[in-house]
User: What shape does this take?
Amino acid sequence: MNYRHAFHAGNFADVLKHAALVRVLLYLRHKDKPFRVIDTHAGGGLYDLTGPEAARSGEARDGVLRLLDGGDLGAAGELLAPYLDLVRAAGAPGLYPGSPLIVQALLRPQDRAIFCELLPEAARDLRRALGRDERVKAVEIDGYTGLKAYVPPVERRGLVLIDPPFERRDEYERAFDSLKAALRKWPGGTYVIWQPVKEPDVAEAFCRAVAAEAPDCLRIDLQVEAPQPGRPLARTGLLIVHPPYVLERELEIILPALARLMARGPGAEFAITRYGRG
Ligand SMILES: C[S@@+](CC[C@H](N)C(=O)[O-])C[C@H]1O[C@@H](n2cnc3c(N)ncnc32)[C@H](O)[C@@H]1O
Assistant: This one.
């Protein structure tokens, strides 16, 4: 495993993923009934944007820092405010919260979360970042093994975040098999799967295969410049299985602002695709 999220923390892909994650969590909080979050690839929890990795890649500069630097969010301002407030609360612009800290901040006393992280140093950092909190558990385990073990949660309400590094050739296959098995055991859950869109045909085939298993899927893509060989990742996406009904409307407002503010060059755009519904 070579992947270190510290190089990418706060980049445009993190912004898309975490902004959507916050909207789903806020929706889950509408009802008093408890919910559970299962984060299969949790990372270290808190990232130093002034540290050597982030400074070397500079990715946060073209990502979250553009939103924090007073960029005009327009109509999306209200919908992005809870995410940006959490980022500031975690210590931005110097520090950036990963998905576990974002989740933890939005749990109520009755809610629970389980975070899986395979890399021992990242799992250790994560435990430190979460502190003592009986609502959350960080487990040093393969995320797909964890998913199999932890669904269905007793609460029967909640969210699974699948956010692998995609450094293995069989990552799509593993994510699909694991998601399919989880859906069989917990058909009522909401699942958010992150993907880098490097090969559009592969990304599309994955979304269609998932939609064949769970016919209510929403896909969002964010492209910050026209993809070119040799350039850094330019397009990223999320597939959301069983999205909250308000999410599509919210993303229609959020995505244009993100594409505008984080554009790296010509060709910045976004797409929203619904699978499985007329
Ligand atoms: C993209 S990062 C996660 C970022 C995090 N979800 C966030 O949004 O802040 C992927 C993480 O998965 C971890 N990882 C890699 N393979 C794994 C596996 N099989 N199971 C669990 N974690 C894994 C990596 O060490 C890395 O920390």
Summary: The first helix runs from residue 12 to 28. Residues 1, 3, 5, 17, 41-43, 98-99, 116-119, 122, 142-143, 163-165 surround S-adenosylmethionine (CB under 6 Å).
